[in-house]
Amino acid sequence: MDEPPGNSGPADRPVAARTVGAYLAAVAQGAPTPGGGSVVGVVAALAAALGEMVCALSAKEGPPGDALRSALAELSALRERCLALAAADEAVYAGYRVAASLPRGDDAERAAREGALQAALATATETPLQLAEASLVALRALVAVAPESKKLLRSDVEIAVLLGEAALRGGLATARGNLGGLDDPTREAFAARADALERAAARQRDEALGMLAHW
User: Fold this and answer.
1) Could you name the domain of life of the organism this protein comes from (predicted)?
2) Residue 171 lies in a domain
């Protein structure tokens, strides 16, 4: 029997339209969706939102510099993008189930079904990788925010960095969970991309936390 990829499927309401309590209840209910990939998107959005808060509060101390204004705009856009990707991840599940339900009575049908499954798995891998990439951009924005922020907000910046790293690594875990079902060279390309993101994440986290340690 074909197993669905390690992503989430469609929910009754978009992620951004649910309350926190409703979303958590949906995650906990024991259905396939929303699952890990969707949760990664929400965590990434929280990292961006916390960074936005730091920017907004720091700007109240005086006219914000170019770095703070730029980071605020970037983090705001990232928050929306990560919520959209969380919803997209949920929709991935439905696409896979449709592909898995295609007929396989003869060679032509089996070939068509396998092609549809490969396309669905590629989407199921691409979406969390995009979330990981967005999380990396958020980490870089947070590095830019730190020197411009109020010192009283140090812990908020640190929490945002840790959330961003968790989201990035969660996106990689979700993507890598789907690699086994993909054919080469698609699998190899996704794996190389994930490895590069992991290395970049480690560097960015170390830079951010090192900066905070000497703040």
Assistant:
1) Bacteria
2) yes
Give the confidence band of 202 by pLDDT, cuts at 50, 70, 90.
confident
Token code pair at residue 121: 């798995």
Which sign, positive or negative, has the C-alpha torsion 82, 44, 211, 215?
positive
Structural domain includes residue 4:
no
The H or E element spanning position 160 is helix 154-179
In this prediction, residue 109 carries a pLDDT of: 96
Rounded to two decimals, the pTM is 0.88
Cα distances (angstroms) measured from residue 18 to each of 79, 87, 112: 15, 11, 37
3-state SS class at 100: helix
Residues 128/65, Cβ–Cβ less than 8 Å: no
Lookup result for tokens 């170019």: 66
Q: Which domain holds residue 180?
A: 15-213
Look at residue 8 and tell me if it is in a domain. Answer: no
